[in-house]
Amino acid sequence: MTTLQQVASRAGCSLATVSRVLNRTGPVSDEMVRKVRRAAAELGYRPAGGPPGSAKRRPVIGVLIPSITNPVFAASLSSIQNRMLVAGHGVLIAQSDYDPAREVDAVASLLNEQPTGLILTVCDARSSEALSAVLPPTVLLGNPPTARFPAAVCADNRQAGRDITEHLLAHGHRRILFVSGYFNASDRATLRYAGYCDAMDAARMTVLEALQIPFVDGFETLDLSMILSRFAPSAIIASNDLLALGVIAAIRRQGLSVPRDISVAGFDGIAIGRLTYPPLTTVEIPDATMGAAAASLLLDMAENAVAPRHLQVAHRLRPGGTVRDMRNDT
């Protein structure tokens, strides 16, 4: 049986350092963490067990998402669970409800279960200093990488924002409004709006201030009467598909038609968008693929001491029937 001392010798460090790395009980440099985990993997080291009298339990990973009810995260979760099932890991799930303050408590609860690693979709990875300073191997899902979290699986949301805006511009739209959840609750939405601004600036069109509403609820009662009167948009881009469907319902409550009176587009490519009539125009993000990739990357980092990586997945514009071509209007 491989001992801690053998792992320490292979890694070229002290027994205390090996203990801190494997038990996550103290600060250790990222380079030393990788050395110790690589040595443990190469030697086939496995902990002898928990405290006396405790039963050996199945390893688990922790997953934090903003909302369990959003089909985007449901698709990612399904892929994560399938990948972890094959690897013999359980999956613990927590949600933040798009609230940065709740993220801290949710991650702390996951850490109480001593997970092998974490997969996190946070509100804004750039402002996650409040999270515990000592974390197991961690992969961001949907968020772009940061200095603290270099391991990430995401799409290029800024480019996706440019692409959908350019699609509307190419169809003759000039007054385009961006409707979003609060930007401090989603760096994905912030980047998509930045892409909208890029495309509008490049076309020398007026950039309209984004309308920000809560992500969690209110879609079914969304009132756009004042905003439609103020901006008179010919098209609206919503920061995700669920919100886009809420925007379509709000437009119809005003006695208007989509796309005859106002065009609508979204992001994510959820299945329900293909079932509506007309089908939703959207930017399709491969959420299931992203979940599987994040799970595989986490296992590589945790079990094989692979260095953190940034994996960027491709998005695809999916034209539907909710965008009107205004170029032939007289």
UniProtKB/TrEMBL annotation:
Task: Output the PROSITE patterns linked to this UniProt entry.
Answer: HTH_LACI_2
Q: Which GO molecular function entries does the Swiss-Prot or TrEMBL record give?
A: DNA binding
This protein's species is Rhizobium herbae
Record's keyword terms, sorted: DNA-binding, Transcription, Transcription regulation
Q: What Pfam families does the record point to?
A: LacI, Peripla_BP_3
The reply on keyword DNA-binding is yes
Identification of the protein by name: DNA-binding LacI/PurR family transcriptional regulator
Q: Give the transmembrane ranges.
A: none
Annotated ranges, domain HTH lacI-type: 2-47
